Amino acid sequence: MKKIFYVLTLLIGGLFFTNSVNAQIVESGIKEAVEEEIAYFGNSANFENEQTFNAYQEYVNKMKGADLSNYSESDEKVNIYIFRGKSCWHCLDEISWLSTQVKEYGKYFNIRTYEVWGNKDNNKLMSTVAKSLGETASGVPFTVIGKKTYSGFSEATGTSMINEVKEQFENSDRYDIKNDINLTDGTLKNGEEKKSSSTVMIVLVSIIVIAGIALIVYISKSK
């Protein structure tokens, strides 16, 4: 009887655990992204030698000197979505460059970033976003503005991004990926992704239930 009670406890616990598995998508704004980049690239302990560390300080100093004091977000602005990786210097280049543009052009955009190397749910969101736009996110930074995507970064790319933002800012009928994708859990709003997730959940619950029943029957017969 004690064995059966133990199995039932594990079964119920498994069901609760399965039901509690949710996407842990983490979004950072420009201020948080700048702080995160400075914390990593501004710490010499993260690099093998001083020469490598010093190579990144130009970008760190850009971010430290950027004026973000008047930056604020609003629904009227165009969203810039940046998928980036911790320790990715191309991502550092983009974040540092954009931070210097906030004072002049921040009135046009919101910056929303997602770290994808250390967060599998952010990585999955990047793939979902890219697929929804008919693209493949093969690396970072991967940036999305409306239906336009940018892979990698250079100042020429940055200038193109600002021009795209300004153009979309004047368009009252502009597109945003949040129209089709729930950015808090990465599901598609048309229900396809939710249906897929529900199917996986049903399969997991079924396996747990069947395994639990089989184990209870086995214990009962072995007495």
Provide a brief overview of the structure.
This protein has 223 residues and is α+β, with helices and mostly antiparallel strands.
Taking pLDDT < 50 over at least 5 consecutive residues as the criterion, the unreliable ranges are: 14-21, 193-201
Structural category is: alpha+beta
Q: How many structural units, i.e. domains?
A: 2
User: What is the strand tally?
Assistant: 5
Please give a handful of descriptors for the protein shown:
223 residues, alpha+beta, Glutaredoxin, 2 domains, five-stranded mixed sheet, globular
Description:
It is a single chain. With 223 residues, the protein is an alpha+beta fold. The protein has two domains: 2-20 and 191-222; 28-179, Glutaredoxin. It is built from eight helices and five strands. It has helices at residues 2-19, 30-41, 50-55, 57-65, 89-105, 120-132, 155-169, 192-222; strands spanning 28-29, 78-84, 109-115, 142-145, 148-151. It has a five-stranded mixed beta sheet, sandwiched between helices. Helix 5 links the parallel strand 2 (78-84) and strand 3 (109-115). The longest helix is centred in the C-terminal third of the chain and has 31 residues, at 192-222. The N and C termini lie close together (10 Å). Residues 14-21 and 193-201 have low confidence and may be disordered.
Topology:
Blueprint: H1 2-19, E1 28-29, H2 30-41, H3 50-55, H4 57-65, E2 78-84, H5 89-105, E3 109-115, H6 120-132, E4 142-145, E5 148-151, H7 155-169, H8 192-222
Parallel strand pairs: 2-3
Antiparallel strand pairs: 1-3, 2-4, 4-5
